[in-house]
Design a protein that fits this description.
Length: about 100
């Protein structure tokens, strides 16, 4: 998508003498940066969400004046969320 939107700019760069490899490196670095920032942001938001899931449930219950996940129906007194650093996700185990 990024390359398709920048076709005119790529043509200008190529006219100025920038090599095709340099243009490719620009898009590779941009894509890598976007992916890394997205991954780190997702990790941070997920960690904060997991650490505060019960507080969030209580806040939403208060905000809506309803009992979310009624313990009589769902057999939950609280939302279970546990982060275990000692147990890595499957992606880390690939060789």
């Amino acid at each position: 998508m990024l390359v398709k939107d920048k076709t005119r700019n790529i043509a200008i760069l190529r006219t100025m003498g920038v090599s095709q490899g340099a243009v490719m490196r620009i898009f590779l670095m941009t894509g890598t940066a976007i992916g890394a920032i997205g991954t780190l942001t997702g990790f941070a938001v997920g960690t904060v969400f997991c650490a505060n899931i019960e507080k969030l449930r209580q806040f939403l219950s208060w905000l809506t004046s309803t009992e979310l996940f009624d313990p009589n129906l769902y057999f939950l007194s609280r939302l279970p969320a546990e982060m275990d650093v000692a147990k890595p996700p499957p992606l880390w185990c690939w060789h």
